[in-house]
User: Fold this.
Amino acid sequence: MKRVDLVRHIEANGCASLREGGRHTVYFNPTSRKVSTIPRHREINDFMAKKICRELEIAEPGKEKKSDQGEPSDAADSQ
Assistant:
């Protein structure tokens, strides 16, 4: 997985960059108060990407939470 895609996923799930290390960027999840480091490589192994997401307690890339598609929306009920 590209590092840019992983960073977009992490930031879309509410995490923020905390600081820059020598060869890593440290990200912080304010909701769960968890911290994880992301290496500065163009490509990040899929296992590493999953590990980082688990550490930050966010959805794994490619497995975003789906909305309840089986239930009708409120807008349809009010008509």
About this structure: The chain has three helices and three strands. Strands lie at 16-20, 24-29, 34-39.
